[in-house]
Amino acid sequence: MTAIQVPLIAPNVKPRVPALPRVLVVDDDALLRAVLRDALYEAGYDVAEASDGYEALQVIDDEDVDLVLLDGRLPHLSGREVVQRLRSKNRTRTLPIIMVTAADSVPDRVAGLAAGADDYVTKPFAIEEIVARVRTTLRAHGAWRRTITAHERHRAALSRALADAATHRTLADACVVLCDAIAGQDGVLGAALVRVTGGGRAASLANAGNLVGYTPGVGLLDRAGVGPWVEPRPLRVFAPLEPLGDGRPAGVLVVELDGRLVEASAGLTMAIDGAAALSGLLLPRLRQERDAEAEGVELRALLDAHAFRPHFQPIVDLRSGVVVGAEALTRFDDGSSPEARFGEASAIGLGVELELATLASAVTAAQGLLPDIAWLSLNVSPELMLSSERDAVRDILDLRDRDVVLELSECQLVTDYDAVRGALRYAGDGIRWSIDDAGSGFASLRHILRLEPAFIKLDRSWVEDVDTDPAKRAMIAGLCHFATQTGAEIIAEGIETEGERRVLGALGVGLGQGYLLGRPAPATVGSV
User: What angle do CA 357, 363, 364 make, to 5 degrees?
Assistant: First the structure.
């Protein structure tokens, strides 16, 4: 019959129970160790033993230990030295340690605590007190570890959400992803992100959980300028995002907590961490959106007040000196740059509306006030010509009292030349078009070849100092030859000196405009 082997168990030694907290009892008194071991076993703890400091350090290196009950006066290596060595290692830097010693002097207790012990018990002691201190210390350490673990989970989830949000094109989509991640944490009932609008107001940008439909309260932004705060009923934490540059916060993260599971202080830390992370990702987007909104408010007021005026600059036949046309230019009442204004409007979706308004203003102002010139040149963008407002463009142009040349601006890339050419033809019978600022921006020979314009406007950068720059003269001469072959005519803009005018005429440039020939001015009887 096969013998059954039974593992030998040493007397008074109990097997390791992994599920129980493990306490290491370190004392050179074997009897005291046995008393403490049995008491801790009865209290529901697993126990390991060591008779001196070196053995204790070895046990801690080899096994998982949750708390050390350490005699202060050990042979070879004192209890205080054991504490110092444990605190010098990352793995045991926060390991709970209770020192037990016969030394009852204040200096001894202070030295032990200064070395890094969490608690101090003097001999003689009651076993119940030792067990109670072990239980209290482990409970406090366990709560701390649970808090740290929860924060780690929260930060890991937030990091994943940040990476996900960074791939979303719109600010709103990114914020929804982030609020969902925060609302999904233990003890969090909901999360909302409030942003600062271009008008300095608070508006909900995203929300999740119980905060769906959350409306920012009055004075939220004023309070946010002071820092994070907690409101008890319901338990909500408010954490401002970083300022946008004018002192106001970019927004406020609102986190609603389950007070039964999460303390206000833990929720405050969570919200502050979330706001800091959100600031890094969202600040550029929030700044851009806020600035766009502010520009939109300003541009809307400008449009409503009609705070702009058309000016007209003459286009002159360089051979005869006769004014043959005029270009309509917009000047804003506040003195702002027209290029900047039209660029801002296009960026925030008001480009077409602003162009229509200025186009109508120019056509109306030219009626009956400009002299009997051959044609009026009007700037239009590909965006306007391809928009749903092309009927409005046609209606405006039907009011003209002379021929019109549409100057296609160079500020936007053209990808569908057939569509642009069709839109220009749809604008009205007999309307011609011009390529503006050839040689700069997106205006290139490709524009000229594909759109077949009646006029090619030479950018002022090629005109400046042409009388002293042979390279520019060679380029312009080639373009004049090209224009002759295609039936187009060159207009040189930005002519400011007599030398430039003379050389351009000699190169074959037929038309020109610039300060030498006439500055932009409002339309009056006999102007231009």
Answer: 85
What's the CA gap between 528 and 523, in Å, rounded? 8
Strands (E), 27-150: 46-50, 67-71, 97-101, 119-122
What pLDDT is attached to residue 527? 61
Confirm if 22 and 47 have CB atoms less than 8 A apart.
Answer: yes
Please state, in angstroms and rounded to a whole number, the distance separating the CA atoms of residues 334 and 312: 18
**What span, in angstroms and rounded, lies between the C-alpha atoms of 361 and 311?**
10
User: Which class for 134: exposed (0-12), middle (13-18), buried (19 or more C-beta within 10 A)?
Assistant: buried
pLDDT of residue 415: 75
Angstrom distances, CA of residue 476 to CA of 92, 118, 122, 334, 442? 80, 86, 100, 37, 18
Average pLDDT over residues 117-129: 86
- Residue 211 CA to residue 188 CA, distance in Å, equals 11
Q: Residue 57, by phi and psi: left (phi above 0), alpha (psi -120 to 50) or beta?
A: alpha
Region 252-256: mean pLDDT is 87
Q: What are the CA-CA distances from residue 408 to residues 26, 45, 167, 377 (Å)? A: 89, 85, 35, 10
How far apart (Å, rounded) are the C-alpha atoms in residues 347 and 473?
37
Nearest to 48 by CA among 78, 79, 26, 76: 26
Overall average pLDDT of the 412-429 stretch: 83
In terms of average pLDDT, the best of 109-123, 448-462, 481-495 is 481-495
Type of residue at 127: I
Vertex 285 angle, CA 279 and 288, to 5°:
125
| Separation between Cα atoms, residue 440 and residue 456, nearest integer Å | 12
For residue 16, pLDDT over 60 is answered with no
The C-alpha atoms of residue 323 and residue 318 are separated, in whole angstroms, by 9
Q: Which of 32-41, 267-276, 278-287 has the highest mean pLDDT?
A: 32-41
Higher pLDDT, 383 or 221: 383
Contact 24, 61 (CB under 8 A): no
Which of 54-63, 253-262, 472-481 is least confident?
253-262
**In this structure, which amino acid lies at residue 77?**
L
Give yes or no for residue 519 having a pLDDT over 80: yes
Q: How far apart are CA 370 and CA 450, in angstroms?
A: 33
What would the two tokens of residue 132 be? 């109670």
Determine if residue 439 is left, alpha or beta; phi over 0 gives left, psi from -120 to 50 gives alpha, anything else beta. Answer: left
Alpha carbons 166 and 174: distance in angstroms, whole number:
7
pLDDT top residue among 235 and 440? 235
DSSP secondary-structure letter at 329?
A: E
**Spatial separation of the C-alpha atoms in residues 173 and 165, rounded to whole Å:** 7
CB distance 325 to 375 below 8 Å: yes
Sign of the dihedral through C-alpha 427, 433, 436, 440 = positive
pLDDT range class, residue 442, cuts 50, 70, 90: very low
